[in-house]
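Structure ticket #2291
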Amino acid sequence: MDKVVASAAEAVADIPDGASLAVGGFGICGIPSILIQAILHQGTTDLEVISNNCGLDGVGLGVLLDAKRIRRIVASYVGENKEFARQYLSGELEVELTPQGTLAERLRAGGSGIPAFYTATGVGTQVADGGLPWKYAADGSIAVASPAKPKATFEVDGKERTFVQEAAIRADYGLVRAWAGDRHGNLVFRHAARNFNPLAAMSGKITIAEVEHLEEPGELDPNRIHLPGVFVHRVVALSVEQAHDKMIEKRTVRPRPRDLYGAGSEGLS
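Resolution: structure written out below.
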């Protein structure tokens, strides 16, 4: 039952070229950065990544993208990653853009044993009807598109509402980051870092979690656990330095009240 491995390198050592990875995080919040770096150093390539986005330029999944290790990505948006946009538009990367809620449910369904589900999102668009550009050719034409055959639909309320069928996602590996976890793989996520992490963990056939605080079995309050250990196969305990090495995607600041109103403004509320 002890799922702790000695290092991130050991945890990802069996991930082969061509594997599919469901990766937690949103922007660069809650990303499994140490596991991603271990994959980079290992040299694994030709990867298919399923994640909300692809990190930033040179950060998170962006390091794998910069190194041309990713062949295909299923994501909700290009985000702040200029290299992601460049590779997609120049025909170097296959991208399946998927509505964010649909992507979340596809991951959850994969981990729950549900093969497919119906959603109203995408009805009447190329998401449902096919022809959505997945990969461009060097001349800007569409090299690969989503299947031209429309997805199955389901009508309710006397045909007043139409839903489209979406397939679940089951990835070869799930990579996630948790605030705390125990040796049995039970995980606790903190605030916004919860995001896609539980869903990515559920989707992975083999899930690896890097945890900032490793607890002994029984030390975590069962009512606090966000993801039970049944979904987690390997746990990597981060060092203090690794746990605190986090970036802020965008920093927005404003003047302090005393700068706005002058001296004596400390008491303003």
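Closing remark: The CA atoms of residues 174 and 201 lie 5 Å apart.
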